[in-house]
């Protein structure tokens, strides 16, 4: 983003780096040149019961993927996370005002995001099931595995598969206890065991959202692939190009157009846009003359 359109904290950090005269940006300077976008999606999904073994097993044993239906995605770089979440709940209520369906909200564990979701769900009196994205759990498990086994080893892969299966069977608390115990038995230094403790703390903190055994038997989604994909084709593929420097209003306009096309609403929007342009440029201007 252009510096004047960065969020206050990021802009302040960027201003401190203005005296840098290096020919190449440092990693810290790159971090202070971006503005975070928020992406949301509302869609329908046919419930499909699975087992933990199917999730972690070979591809040939996995059930056929169920595609999202009536998907609507949108994003914003101008509005904060709370505003986007509120818009998602409004869209869900339009589709299911009586809340006759099972509402599932898949999240990545961001603390403020969770607080906003719970607050807004309460304001709309929405009954939701919160599910922590299993892919994020796997990332923590992989980092912990490399404290016990070398990177890229078969032992690390088998270790992650074993722990992941336990988590999918609803034993996240047991896995957290085992992680801390194994780190102590292995006499890992305080610095070396940090990824283990982080993983254990993560599992303990979000345990109510890790009841994957129940989620899978009920046929609920446990990963946010729809959002991960949207982050790529809505935001990254267009805005995160080498050398691009965006103003906020321009970036927001691009995101809205891409969201409309992705959601299948572009034709309806374009009809509305042309009618509004006709009204603004012709009907209002020449109404008196007629």
Task: Please summarize what this structure is.
With 290 residues, the chain is mainly α.
First-last Cα distance: 47 Å
Question: What order do the strands of the largest sheet run in, or round the barrel if closed?
Answer: 1-2
CATH fold field value of the largest domain: Nucleotidyltransferase, domain 5
Low-pLDDT windows of residues: none
Which radius of gyration do the C-alpha atoms yield?
23 Å
* Separate helix tally: 13
How much of the residues is beta strand, in percent? Answer: 5-15%
Count of domain modules: 2
Instruction: Sketch the topology as an H/E string, one letter per element.
Output: HHEHEHEHEHHHHHHHH
Question: Helical content, roughly?
Answer: 55-70%
Secondary structure class reads: mainly alpha
Number of strands: 4
Instruction: Compute the average pLDDT.
Output: 90
CATH class of the largest domain: Alpha Beta
| Main sheet overview | 2 strands, antiparallel
Level-2 CATH architecture of the largest domain: 2-Layer Sandwich
Q: Which term fits the overall shape?
A: globular
């Amino acid at each position: 983003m252009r510096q004047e359109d960065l969020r206050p904290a990021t802009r302040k950090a960027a201003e401190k780096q203005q005296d840098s005269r290096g020919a190449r940006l440092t990693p810290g300077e790159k971090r202070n040149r971006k503005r975070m976008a928020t992406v949301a999606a509302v869609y329908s999904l046919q419930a499909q019961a699975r087992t933990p073994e199917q999730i972690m097993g070979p591809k040939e044993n996995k059930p056929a993927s169920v595609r999202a239906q009536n998907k609507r995605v949108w994003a914003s770089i101008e509005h904060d996370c709370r505003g986007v979440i509120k818009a998602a709940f409004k869209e869900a209520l339009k589709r299911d005002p009586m809340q006759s369906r099972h509402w599932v909200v898949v999240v990545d564990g961001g603390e403020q995001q969770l607080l906003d979701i719970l607050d807004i769900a309460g304001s709309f009196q929405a009954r939701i099931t919160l599910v922590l994205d299993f892919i994020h759990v796997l990332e923590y498990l992989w980092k912990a595995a490399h404290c016990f086994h070398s990177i890229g080893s078969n032992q690390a892969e088998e270790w992650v598969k074993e722990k992941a299966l336990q988590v999918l069977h609803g034993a996240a608390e047991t896995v957290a206890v085992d992680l801390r115990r194994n780190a102590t038995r292995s006499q890992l230094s305080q610095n070396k065991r940090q990824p283990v403790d982080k993983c254990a703390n993560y599992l303990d903190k979000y345990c109510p959202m890790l009841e994957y055994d129940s989620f899978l038997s009920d046929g609920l989604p446990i990963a946010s692939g729809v959002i991960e994909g949207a982050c790529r084709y809505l935001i990254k593929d267009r805005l995160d190009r080498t050398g691009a420097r965006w103003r906020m209003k321009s970036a927001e306009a691009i995101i809205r157009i891409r969201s409309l096309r992705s959601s299948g609403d572009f034709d309806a929007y374009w009809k509305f846009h042309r009618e509004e342009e006709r009204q603004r440029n012709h009907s209002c201007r020449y109404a008196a003359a007629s």
